[in-house]
Structure formats: C-alpha cells, structure tokens
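Would you mind writing out the residues of a protein together with its fold in token form for me to study?
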Amino acid sequence: MQELGIKQFRSSAYHPESQGALERFHQTLKNMIRMYCQDTEKSWDEGIHLLLFAAHDSVQESLGFTPFELVFGHTVRELLKLLKEKLLVDDDSPLNLLEYVSDFRTQLTKACDLARENLKSAQKCMKEKYDKTTVMQSFQTGDKVLAFPPVPGTPLHARYFGPYLVEKKENDLNYVIVTPDRRKNKQLCHVNMLKPYHERKKVINAVSSGSNDNHTAEELELFNLSETTKLSNSHILRQMDSKLTHLEQSQQDDIQERVQEYSDLFPDVPTRTTMISHDVDVGDAVPVKQHPYRLNPSKQESLNKEVRYLLERPDRAQSAVGVHPAF
C-alpha cells in the first residue's frame, strides 16, 4: 500500500455517513443476492463468490473502470484469458521486477486519473439533475430559522426545532446557527435542514360590550328553550293573548274560542288523522347500512331520550320494511 501510495481511512463503527460508497455497494449486493435467490432458491449461498466476482468485474458507471482494474491495475484474468495467453504468447523470457513495478504504477496512476475525471463528470451530471427541481434558498446573519436535526434512537420523532438565529454563513450550502437549548451551543447545518421562520402577526381583537337590549321574562324563557323536535303547543296556548296582540279584540276572542273548542287538535305529541294520507316516494334510493359504533356519554343520553319519546307516542307502529328505525 505504501509503494502504490494508497491511504486507508478508518471510520467509527455503525457510522454509515462516513462510508457512503461502501453502504451503497451493500445495497447493490443485496439486490444481486435477492435476484440470485429467485433462481437458485436454497443453494444461493454456494454462489456468493460468483456474485462478488461479477461485481468486481463490472464497469462502474461513474468511474468508467471496474473495481478490479483500479486495485490491481489490469483486468481480471479469467480462465479463457489464461488459456488464450498460454496458446498465443510465446515469449517465456523472465520479466524484470523493477520494470514490472514501474509499468504497474504508471498504468495504475493513469487509470486512477481517468477515474477521477469520469467521477467529476458523473457528479456534475447528477448535480444538474438534482438542481432541476430544487429551489435555492439563502439566509442572512440574524435571520430566524427552524432546524431539522436528527434525533438519535427515535428517527420517527424527528421534527423541526427552533426558532434559532443564523450566526454565520460558511458558504452557499452551510450555515452556523445558535442552538442554546441543545448540547452544542452552535451547530453547522446544511441549507436543506433549515427553513425560514415566519413570526405570527400580533392581532388585537375588537372589544365590545354586551348587548343592552331589554328582554322580557317570557322572551328570555323562549330563548333558553333547548332545540328539539317536540312541539310546544301547550306553552303557546297558555300565552295565547301575547301572540294575538296584532289583531283586534273581536278577532282575538274568535280565535281563542275556536282553539278551545278543538283543543284536542293541538297536543304536544303529534297524532294521526284518517282524513288524508300520503306516501313518501324515495325514488331509487336504497337503505343505508352502517355497522354499530360507540357514542360518547352526552350523545348517548340524548339518543336515549329521543328513543323514549318515540316509544311513548301513541301512533307508533312496526315498520313494514326491514330498515331502521323501526317506528
């Protein structure tokens, strides 16, 4: 490794952020094993070395070379290639070790240089594709922002925190924000982890005094009546005089006499008549069927009250069709 100028970078365990290329290869290898298992089923473990060989001998799109070429400086010498060299190459003269190492380093250096150029070109293309749907945003020193930091151990609980102040702009993509409520007082964040904080406008609601309208006791009593489907004929009949003030006295007496004569027609509970009948045509509508569900106590009490009211009606009858309600 020293002769070839290879540097090894160590990383913390279980820290995939520093091993992006390796983690990406793990995903590719898992996909290859998954496809291989569909064909071989239980004997998939016997072909792992073949999958690795295929991955090492495949041209990497962004580099333009196979991993084997970048590590060993030449293509893989497969069985057919070894046979070809044995049959066609007649030069059996020993190779000078110094010349071999020199040629090997030159070839490997050229391959690495070309791979870097191809990688830069591929990264540029990927950036252009990503930036097509990206809205660039920038912040100034002193702006208030919301940050989206990772939550260790509970990724599903991640949310925006803040607001925080922007202290410094490192470059177009990185900003230093002040985080007094976190372990680090200052934190470097990528622009994708930030969004502007818009303060809510302070709105002062209008203040008004209560209504000074003078209402009589009877009007207040009517206002306090609960909304219900039941009739209140008896209450109105007891206050018939207050309802007929717009008529002359003779007309009031005539109406009161007629109402007293036929008082059985104005009960609080509706009754039936045999003078006329009608049918309710619902057209092509079909009954709505619904599974039973729970009600909260307040609604349950109101429902029970209405059911008791229907059961107490003298005109209740069994429904002729199998739909609800059966009254």
Observations:
- Residues 272 and 278 are 12 Å apart (CA to CA).
- The first strand starts at residue 144 and ends at 147.
- The beta strands are 144-147, 161-169, 174-178, 186-190, 194-196.
- Residues 17-132 form one domain.
